[in-house]
Amino acid sequence: MLKPIHFLLAAVFLLLAACSGPGVRFATAAETAQANARQAQARAQASPAPVASPSPATSPVPLPSPSGSGALAQFQAQLEAVAQSVLPSIVQIDTSGGLGSGIVYDTAGDIVTNNHVVEGATSYTVKTSDGRSFTASLVGRYASNDLAVIKVASASGLRPAKFADSAKIQVGEIVLAVGSPFGLSDTVTEGIVSATGRTQSEGNGVTLTDLVQTSALINPGNSGGALVDLNSQVIGIPTLAGADSQGRQQSAGIGFAIPSNQVVEAAKQIVASGTVTHSNRPYLGIQTRDNATSGVDVVAVTAGGPAAQAGIQAGWVITAIGGQSVADSNGLSQAITAYSPGNRVSVALRLPDGSTKNVMVTLGERPVTP
Predict the structure, then answer these.
(1) What is the helix (H) or strand (E) element at residue 93, kind and residue range?
(2) Using CA atoms, how far apart are residues 269 and 105, in angstroms rounded to an integer?
(3) Could you tell me which CATH number the domain at 282-365 has?
(4) What pLDDT is attached to residue 69?
(5) Considering only CA atoms, which of 253, 281, 246, 287 is closest in space to residue 266?
(6) Which of 60, 97, 191, 269 has its CA 20 to 30 A from that of 252?
(7) Can you give the residue ranges of every domain in the chain?
């Protein structure tokens, strides 16, 4: 009987016999060495010799300073200089009904602020940035534009603020809001001019137009203070903080300021006569709302007003003023602000039947009271 080892030996014998058959043979030792040499040469050509990695540096190489780092330091120094320059001209106003801020208007002790800061109050105390306190009295109010002037008697050393031309404000300008939010006097916040020509209702029957929108934080107590540019000049009086559509949730980074040109015009008249008799602001004599597609719907026309005299009717849509397209009510406010009372301006309109019409309107002067 054959064992398994016998079958294995037989298989090996048959394999060797086959390899020794015609046409098949084993390579000689010399041929094997030659083949191995050719394979080694081929591998050397296919794979280049590795390059030694450089040794790591023993100490880091110092990097040059980033470009513009000096500019950042200069910018910060400029902000500090603006704050130091402006703060002596901004005061805190404590009244029998609350508190707010104010701007020193002249060396006679007149201080301009918001009407809602002083409205209904019977006493006023002014606190300056150097810690002094003065009793003040009311000079006059311009309620329809939320402005007022109070006066400090025998107050020496007050530094009047410098007012810029708000018609030259550019969106994107860096600005500082200075005032006394929550009674924290001499508070400075920073932002930019986010937009111009805004229209906002105060919810008390007063609608403010041509407002400056800013991202500088505005909180209760900032009202009546200053929004200043990098030239240390007042471009507006912070008046409103943005809110949601229901007017309940305050929106951080959205605030509105009455432009300095309106402030100066009103303060000048109040200081001179105790009241504002001329707004010196252009007036169409219409009530509007934003159109669903584009333009501004004319909701109502004031009888005898400039628009009525030009034949404009309720139900028409204003699409351009003086050749400048008008997309919404804010755009209309911006376009009108470029003119003065008495100027003639073309008004492009879209009528209910789809036709268009252009009329010339002689702008009036906005009434002092609504």
Answers:
(1) strand 90-95
(2) 12
(3) 2.30.42.10
(4) 67
(5) 281
(6) 97
(7) 84-152, 166-273, 282-365
- The rounded distance, in Å, linking the Cα atoms of 206 and 144 is 6
List active site positions: 116, 146, 223
Answer left, alpha or beta for residue 157, where phi above 0 means left and psi between -120 and 50 means alpha.
Answer: left
- Using a cut of 0.70, tell me whether the model's pTM lies above it: yes
Number of H helices, E strands in the chain: 7, 20
**Cα torsion 107, 110, 111, 113: sign:** negative
Does CATH place domain 166-273 in 3.30.559.30? no
Q: Encode pLDDT of 160-215 as tens digits.
A: 999 999 999 999 999 999 999 999 999 999 999 999 989 888 877 788 989 999 99
Q: Which residues are 241's β-sheet partners?
A: 255
Model pLDDT for residues 18-33, shown as the tens digit of each residue: 343 433 333 444 544 5
Nearest CA among 106, 70, 66 for reference residue 89: 106
84-152 shares its CATH topology with 282-365: no
May I ask the CATH architecture of the domain 84-152? Beta Barrel (2.40)
Give the single-character DSSP code of 181.
G
**CA–CA distance, 53 with 75 (Å, rounded to integer):** 46
